[in-house]
Amino acid sequence: MAGRFPPTPSVLSIILSTYNAADELERTLWGYSAQTCEEFEVVVADDGSGPGTRDRIEQLGASTGLSISHVRQKDDGFRKCRILNRAIAGARGEYLILSDGDCIPREDFVETHARLARRGHFVSGGRVRLARRVGSRIRKDDVLGGALFEPPWLDERRALIRGRDRRKLTRSPRRAGWLDRLTTTRATWNGHNASAWKTDLQRVNGFDERMTYPVEDRELGERLRNAGIRPIQARHRAVCAHVEHDRPWLDPEAQATNERLRAETRGVPRPLRIFQGFARGRDWTEHGIHKGPRPG
To answer: What is the pLDDT of residues 23-77, one digit of tens each?
Structure first.
């Protein structure tokens, strides 16, 4: 059976976005310290947190044995796309897994992303949404021992917000694979859980830094699609847990701007192209890792 599956990436980087959420980041890094795949680096993309985050990262690097790099920019509003682009450019891995600093990975998270990696594709993972009251009740042993992803722990605390998330808790790779094939949810680039080859992210020039929250992640995925990079649905196989929280940075005016930029990326829908000059979506942003037109 040798050669049946393509080889997994040899060097992996995990990129985690964060902003003034040291406790959440600590729980997340516990999760990465318990992974079945141990060969990866962690890059914390910090959108201007105070010194408490830096101190916590240093402590956790020493206590967990994780290889952690801290990439930070000064606090000047929501500039997540900019710091993520810096992290992508500086990451050592040939394959990059992007998530948020408040998304705790199941112990097979990194291994699953690496196993699903295919040239010409990106992986779209899923999350289990937990009630806000549960956050402070998550202990280190709950993460390291995997109880956080087990129905008894979740049921006892009435933690699940959506009952259908229970399907993502399956430990059967076969069942999870079938659920991913049967789901009607479209595979998209999800800021909380997605992965791609670094060269593909560079090919579309990373995130569009004009965009704030929300849909900045979906826009990147649409440029990947326009470049011919196809999604792999893994919402039931690559799983993390996210405790719900407020989103004070949500600005209706910025959201409208983001949706306009996203529409420009998608281009004219195929049924209408016969009337509008066959416009196609764009696969490059001039406001990404590199500023300006595509080189060459």
So the answer is: 999 999 999 999 999 899 999 999 999 999 999 999 999 999 999 999 999 999 9
Distances (CA, A) of 31 to 89, 159, 214, 245: 25, 18, 26, 19
**Single-letter code of the amino acid located at 170:** T
Instruction: Using alpha carbons only, give the angle 154, 155, 156 rounded to the nearest 5 degrees.
Output: 95
Read off the tokens for 51. 């010194």
- Does the predicted model carry a pTM greater than 0.90? yes
Mean pLDDT for the stretch of residues 209-214: 92
In a 10 Å sphere around its CB, with 0-12 CB exposed, 13-18 middle and 19+ buried, how is residue 264 labelled? middle
Q: Which long-range contacts (CB under 8 A, 24 or more apart) does 290-294 make?
A: 290/205, 294/205
CA distances from 274 to 113, 258, 260, 268 (A): 39, 27, 22, 10
Dihedral (Cα; 142, 52, 41, 83), 10-degree rounding: 120
Tell me the average pLDDT across 77-91: 97
Question: For position 68, what pLDDT does the model report?
Answer: 98
Question: At 3, is the secondary structure helix, strand, or coil?
Answer: coil
CB 44 within 8 A of CB 32: no
Contact 87, 45 (CB under 8 A): yes
Question: What residues does 203 pair with on adjacent strands?
Answer: none
- Report d(CA 283, CA 85) in Å as an integer: 16
* Continuous segment of H or E residues that includes residue 98: strand 95-100
> Structure tokens of 6?
């393509």
How far apart CA 174 and CA 180 sit, in angstroms, is 10
